[in-house]
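Dear U.,

For the methods section draft, I wanted the exact inputs and outputs in one place so we can describe them consistently. I've listed the two proteins in the order they'll appear in the manuscript figures. Please don't edit the token lines directly; just add comments below if something needs changing.

First protein:
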Amino acid sequence: MSPLPTQPLSPLDGRYQAAVTGLGEFLSEAGLNRARVQVEVEWLIYLTDHSMFGSAPLTAEQQASLRALVTDFGQAEIDELAELEAVTRHDVKAVEYLVRRRLAALGLDSIAELTHFACTSEDINNLSYAITVRDAVNTVWLPKLRGVIGKLAELAEQHRDAAMLCHTHGQPATPSTMGKELAVFVYRLGRIVTQLEGSEYLGKFSGATGTFAAHVVADPDAAWPAISQEFVESLGLTWNPLTTQIESHDWQAELYNRVAHANRVLHNLATDIWTYISMGYFRQIPQAGATGSSTMPHKINPIRFENAEANLELSCAILDSLAATLVTSRLQRDLTDSSAQRNIGVGFGHSMLALDNIQRGLGEIDLAREVLLADLDANWEILGEAIQTVIRAEVAAGRSSIEDPYAMLKELTRGKRIGQAELVAFVDALDIGDAAKARLLALTPAGYTGLANELVDRLPGA
């Protein structure tokens, strides 16, 4: 058997690549290396702007030429870095050498020794990861999550008045509306989005063990902590003043836990929608040319939601592992985090794929209101809650002498199917006030939804 041509090992880079491609702009090896070049270039510009170590400020044209190393970063740089790393056996050193080569090409040899000045590799790495993760979350992943929330909010509004039998513990229960139940997920996910929008992305820039030791020896009079803070904040990050060789990664653990929380709420949504489909509450809209089952032509399998479940579980497994692993480093440094962080994109990729499936799946279902109404009409016993509650109110108000209304309704309804006629006869015989009796006689399962419709207005922006 002939060996296959080189193939992507991960489905994220093969079968599902189109759904996650935006993340590769930031969370790939190339995206990381571009951010490393950015940090190296900005540090050079910072040092020269402040005329440190005999340097002079670069002209606007020279600064633009340096920054073009980032904006024009492409396949040539990717290939060159691979060649350099094959020799250096060190990814960050390869970036430093690339920048030095570009300085020579630009006629800026005079500042070459300021490249990577007083930096440990982690000074570059931690800032680069913070930049790439921040940009991936804010420009790719969060907009996709907001798209799902927007679709859910649209469905919640559309179905706000669609009365539906609830199923607490899997058993018929007090009705709601489909819109209100979807609104619950909109609200839950919206809170997480607010938390994610407030996430901090921390960075350190303080040398081999976080002490500015080499910096102080090179220039004892410079205000190195202030310089470090100003530089880190110039990249749009939050400065961490107290670290070892590495930034402590606590912000990453916090972020990945929040993303995993969103994943789990989305997983709950996917399983609920799947269940509603299985109950006939939602019908799936046939897609032209699609096959539901290889042997059963009638089937439309809910694959969007099943795919989402699997990918959300994979995403959580990776993000949970990262959150647990990254907060620990032996003494002042070990390389566990280096290998772990290379899987950040994989964690977000599986979540992104799930979001894509959920968003598409929500656009391929239609509410079967007639099924909802038929289910309600077959379960009049659920009005037992309303009846016993009204009786208790009447007893409290002195308009009834009935003893133990709950036990009375339990005897009538528990474990039984009763219809409208039986309930009407029961209510007619009750010793309660006329107004209360009239309300109960007018009540139907489809009308027993409380304030479900109005609760949809509680959504932010509703």
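Second protein (the one for the lower panel):
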Amino acid sequence: MNDNEISRRRLLGTVGAAGVTGLALGAAGGAAGYAAAASGPAAALATVGSTTEPFHGEHQPGITTPMQSHGHLAAFDLAQGAGRREATALMRRWSATAARLMAGEPTDDDTGVALDAGPSSLTVTFGFGRTFFDRTGLTAQRPVQLDPLPAFSSDRLDPRRSEGDLWVQIGANDGLVAFHALRALQKAAGSAARTRWQMTGFNRSPGVTARPMTSRNLMGQVDGTRNPKPSDADFDSRVFVPATGSGAGSAAQPAWMAGGSYAVVRRIRMLLDDWDELSLKDQERVIGRRKSDGAPLTGGGEAAELDLDRVGPDGSLVIPADAHARISAPEQNAGAAMLRRPFSYHDGMAADGTPDAGLLFVCWQADPLRGFVPVQRKLDRGDALSRFVRHETSGLFAVPGGAAEDGYVGRRLLEP
């Protein structure tokens, strides 16, 4: 290795570390950084690359994991003639592959796509769709929570890019690491399953803001302010299926779902050209929050409670009756809540010349009949935001609990 190569590696390590701390370098700063790197010791792998998430545990990764900057969502259908035996072997392979990748280890048939990179907080999450149980002869074990979602007026669903026997969520803080995992799982599927659909998303990268902040969506809005937090006393009961197999007010759930959750997946196209025609004031009234910091229009910071009864000098509600924040608030939906963990997406321009962009909406709950469904029904009846979004794909998946060290995801279902 020559001196130029050594200097380049040191420069890359220094730049990576600076990104983690949120340091912004201009042209002069970049030159100074290069000089310092060239004369100092080689930098260790930046924090953003070295961070790992555990694969094994009570819950699967990728649910409570902090949002990652790159993601892939994919659904697979079992091959014709494949059944429970093939599905079991597939879940064994997938779990072993995911565990190695998340530990930063190469696979047996590694492509080298992520060579030199650390694990970068990679997570891989697996779920089962409604049709999986028909294909594997396990219909008696299918939860009622997987009953089809009701139709909504904003739905323009493409069935070819909806649902699926199996679902995979991949997240990482490096685009190549995320793509590497996707390719590895597609290859590991072998002849047992074929890709039904796949979508790619993104979020902010760690360290690009001066302090940790709630992410923004492509409308520029702070998105996820009132998400349940693991520190909340009722977090587990809202997000995860209890070990007893049932929850208060929920239909009984099969024992194999203990520690699991349900993911609702929606590709929501944002009509950005129409949205951008609104004034800032009108945008804020549609949402019910300030665009600058996500705070309610009734005042305070981002985390301030909504004052839903406050009226302005003209006697009208400060947070309009059809504002998105009002209609989706848990107190307006008998406490219904879900953990939203989306990615943004941009798939170029549509045929009409408008951006094909929006949100890969993923939400988690112990029971979608008490989480997503009642809230979406309420939004469907009068949300001001509905004029600017279109739900184009949909999926509902049962995501079992995490794998034991000597097991694999779904073992309690496939080997009762």
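Candidate sentences for the figure legend, describing the second protein: Strands lie at 70-78, 123-128, 166-172, 193-202, 261-270, 339-340, 343-349, 355-365, 389-399. The chain has twelve helices and nine strands.

Thanks,
Y.
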